[in-house]
Amino acid sequence: MPTIITPYGPVEALPGAEFHPDGSVRSCIPAIACPLNTPLGVLVPQFTANTQRKRQLPAMLFHPGGRLRNLPLEEQTVVPTPLGPLPAEQVTFHESGALKRLFPLNGTLSGFWTQEDEAAMAVPLALDTPLGPVETAIISLYFSGQGGLRSLTLWPGRTLEVPCPLGSVTARIGVSFYDSGAIRSLEPAAPTDIPTPIGTLTAFDPDAVGVNGDTNSLRFRENGSLLGLVTTAHAFDVVQENGRVRRVEPPLRRDPCDGQRLEVGPLALEFAGGRVWIGRAGQSRISAAATDVTAVPFHPPLPAMHRLCTMGAGAW
Q1: Dihedral sign, Cα of residue 64, residue 69, residue 72, residue 78
Q2: Which residues neighbour 281 within 8 Å (Cβ) at sequence distance 6 or greater?
């Protein structure tokens, strides 16, 4: 059982530790209890995996030079944070040693332990955020190297009322912030009417994935002006340089749960300097002056939908 020397104390590790080119440890898995003197106090890395909830041993990770990068904990432990003492089962660090992310829970999801099982353990936390006091269950918090709250990620099913620059919006998944505390982005929990340079648009992203709340579909500049949004509710008539009008519509695609039905995919819009950029995921965008773009309600073409529903898979 090799002994790994770290700036925080020795780690009696399982075989298979990895090292950076400078010789400092890159990753290792403790074999026994190894209390470490970390920037957050004395913490014990996870060294057992013998329950339905924790069936794997995640590795400790280190930045080049040996500073901690990722630390899974043996037990939930209250640690100091820029928002006050909070419970954690996993913490990550900036290379400077400052706290980067905090995860109150860190169970391994599997057929034996589901997301619902883990969520049942999520206790609402009282947090002093740039939004004001908030009490909710979170998956994680993300801090800047200077200690400002960069984002918070909500548990699925949880929502948060966000007083954003264009009015209060109910958010799911998460909210992110500039270092000043201004709102950078949020994920609307339901189709929400948002005033834009081309009129009121209904913002909602059906493809939003709740991995974290760092980047969301409704985005703002630091001064509070609208930067971008995602919609499935509108098509856009764009006057081109030759005077012709081009219609840009949300994409129609097969429902992944039912290969015969169509569903409407999202269009992403961005606003800057009196112009609008419109595009589909994975495709190039078109741009035009805001005065040359008209939003119209989008209604999926029923004949195309019928055709897709009645054609066999071999026809595609």
Answers
A1: positive
A2: 207, 265, 266, 268
Q: What single string gives the DSSP state of each residue in 255-311?
A: ETTEEEEEEEPPEEEEEETTEEEEEETTS--EEEEGGGEEEEE----HHHHHHHHHS
Rounded distance between C-alpha atoms, residue 91 and residue 44, angstroms:
12
- Structural contact between residues 180 and 146, judged by C-beta atoms closer than 8 angstroms: no
Nearest to 66 by CA among 113, 27, 16, 17: 27
Q: How confident is the model at residue 237 (pLDDT cuts 50, 70, 90)?
A: very high
Instruction: Using DSSP, state whether 314 is helix, strand or coil.
Output: helix
How far apart CA 7 and CA 291 sit, in angstroms, is: 60
- Please report, for the chain, the start and end positions of each structural domain, with discontinuous segments joined by +: 3-190, 234-315
The full length of the chain comes to 316
DSSP 8-state class, residue 13: B
Confidence band for 302, pLDDT divided at 50, 70 and 90: low
- Helices in the chain by DSSP H: which ranges? 115-119, 302-310
Given a cut of 80, whether residue 255 has pLDDT beyond it is: no
Residue 94 identity: H
Question: Which tokens in the block code for residue 312?
Answer: 């066999």
172 and 158 in contact (C-beta within 8 Å)? Answer: yes
Shortest CA distance to 142 belongs to which of 83, 71, 208? 83
* CB of 144 closer than 8 Å to CB of 150: yes
Beta bridge partners of 56: none
3-state SS, 188-227, equals ECCCEEEEEECEEEEECCCCCCCCCCCCCCEEECCCCCEE
Cα distance between residue 132 and residue 117, in whole Å: 30
Query: Coil, strand, or helix at residue 291?
Result: helix
